[in-house]
Design brief:
Length: 385
C-alpha cells in the first residue's frame, strides 16, 4: 500500500505554536456567579475543590469572590490553606478530612471544618484554638455526613464542646443525592431530614446560623432547599447538571494539526486497527490524548471541529495523540482543531464529549492533564459590578 509523504511543515505562528492549549475564560465564571446570585436570596459558597473543577482553584476563587460569592468551599484542609496562602480572606469551609488531618493548621488559618462523626468532633475539639465547625448530616446518600441515628448524640456532644469554649457551631450541612432530577422524591425527603437535623441541633442548645444543603442542581431548580447558603461548584464553571439554565462554559481546548497525510480507502489507523478509511481521505494528527484527559472510550462517537466543520476521529485515542478524518479538505499542518468550547461557533461542547464518553462533564474537567498549556482570560477590572 502506497502512502504519500506526510507534510511536516511547522505550525504557523498565528496558530498554536507549542501544541495543545486550554483556554480558561474567567469572564464566564464571573457571569455564572452573577446569574446564580440572582437565583437565590441565600449566600453563595464557591466550591473550588479539585483545582476549581480543573479551572484553577485560586483563579476561580478570586473571580467568584470578586463577583459576590461570600464563601469558599473545598474538601481538604490543604486545599483550604492554599486559598489562604493566595490571600483569599472570605470564610472557607473544608468538609472531607481524615480524623488525623492537620486541624491545628486549619484553625490557625481560619478554615471552617465540617464534622461528619463523633471521632471528627473529638479530634477537632483537641485542636489548638477555637474551631469553627459545621455539623454534617447525611441527608440520604449513605456517603459523607453523620447517620441520622447518631445525630442527636453528635449535637449533644457538640453543644458540650461549645459550652467548654472548644468549638463554635457555625453551621449545619447536608447534601442531596438526586438534585439533578427535580421532583425526585429523595429531594423532598432529604430536605425534611435536613430540617429535622437543624431543629434537633437547636433543641440541643446549638444556634447554627448557616444552614446549607443545596449544590448546583438544587440551586438552579429548588429554592426551598437554599436555606442560608448554597454551595455551588459545577455551575460556576458552566456545567448545569439539570439542563435548565444558560450558563457560560469557561473552557476551550484546541490544538494545531501536527501533520496531515492522504491515505487510500482501507487504510487502518491507530492501535488495534479499530478504524479503517472508508474512502481515500486526508488524516490529521492532533497532539492531545487520554494522557491529557480526553476520554479514550469516546473515540468512535467523538467529533472535533476543523475549518468550521465537525469531523470524526479516525481510530482510537492514544495517550498523547489522536487522528482526525478530514475527508477531502485541503487542511494544512498548523491549522487549528477545536476539541471543545462554548459551542457558539458549532464546535463540540463539554457536554457533547460527556455524552460520547458516557460520563458527566464534571469528570472531564477534573481530569484535564497538567501537560496542556493554559491560557487564562482574566476579568477586566471594574467589570464586576
Ligand atoms: C462538590 C460538592 C458540592 C458542589 O457540587 P456541585 O454540584 O458541583 O455544585 C457541594 N457540596 C458538597 C458536599 C460537595 O461535595
Amino acid at each position: 500500500m502506497k502512502h504519500p509523504a506526510t507534510a511536516l511543515a511547522p505550525a504557523r505562528p498565528e496558530a498554536l505554536g507549542e501544541g495543545a492549549r486550554l483556554t480558561v475564560d474567567l469572564t464566564a465564571v464571573a457571569h455564572n456567579v452573577r446569574l446564580l446570585r440572582r437565583r437565590t436570596e441565600a449566600g453563595l459558597m464557591a466550591v473550588v475543590k479539585a483545582d476549581g473543577f480543573g479551572h484553577g482553584a485560586v483563579d476561580v476563587a478570586r473571580t467568584a469572590t470578586a463577583a459576590g460569592a461570600g464563601w469558599l468551599g473545598v474538601t481538604s484542609v490543604h486545599e483550604a490553606v492554599a486559598l489562604r496562602d493566595a490571600g483569599l480572606r472570605v470564610p472557607v469551609l473544608s468538609w472531607l478530612n481524615p480524623v488525623d488531618a492537620d486541624f491545628d493548621t486549619a484553625v490557625r488559618r481560619s478554615v471552617d471544618l465540617a464534622v461528619p462523626s463523633r471521632d471528627h468532633l473529638d479530634a477537632i475539639t483537641r485542636a489548638d484554638g477555637l474551631a469553627r465547625v459545621h455539623l454534617h448530616l447525611d441527608t440520604g446518600m449513605a456517603r459523607d455526613g453523620t447517620e441520622p441515628g447518631a445525630w442527636v448524640d453528635l449535637c449533644r456532644q457538640a453543644y458540650a464542646a461549645e459550652r467548654d469554649g472548644r468549638i463554635r457551631v457555625v453551621g449545619v450541612m447536608g447534601h442531596l443525592a438526586c438534585a439533578e432530577m427535580p421532583g425526585h422524591p429523595a429531594n423532598a425527603a432529604g430536605r425534611r431530614l435536613f430540617e429535622w437535623g437543624v431543629a434537633t441541633a437547636r433543641g440541643a442548645g446549638l444556634r447554627p446560623a448557616v444552614r446549607h444543603l443545596a449544590a448546583s442542581a438544587a440551586t438552579l431548580t429548588e429554592p426551598r432547599s437554599h436555606f442560608d447558603l448554597v454551595r455551588v461548584g459545577a455551575a460556576l464553571v458552566g456545567i448545569d447538571p439539570t439542563g435548565t439554565t444558560a450558563l457560560r462554559t469557561a473552557l476551550r481546548l484546541a490544538a494545531p494539526i501536527v501533520a496531515v497525510r492522504r491515505v487510500p480507502a482501507g487504510t487502518p489507523v491507530g492501535y488495534g486497527h479499530a478504524w479503517r478509511a472508508a474512502s481515500t481521505s486526508t488524516l490529521g494528527l492532533v497532539p492531545i490524548g487520554y494522557g491529557d484527559g480526553l476520554p479514550r472510550n469516546a473515540w468512535d462517537r467523538a467529533e472535533v471541529q476543523v475549518r468550521g466543520r465537525r469531523r470524526r476521529l479516525a481510530g482510537r485515542i492514544s495517550m498523547d495523540q489522536f487522528v482526525v478524518d478530514l475527508g477531502d479538505d485541503p487542511v494544512r499542518p498548523g491549522e487549528t482543531v477545536t476539541v471543545f468550547g462554548p459551542g457558539d461557533a458549532g464546535e463540540p461542547t463539554l457536554s457533547d464529549w460527556a455524552g460520547w464518553a458516557d460520563t458527566i462533564a464534571h469528570e472531564l474537567v477534573t481530569g484535564l492533564g497538567p501537560r496542556l498549556r493554559r491560557e487564562v482570560l482574566a476579568v477586566a477590572k471594574g467589570s464586576l459590578t
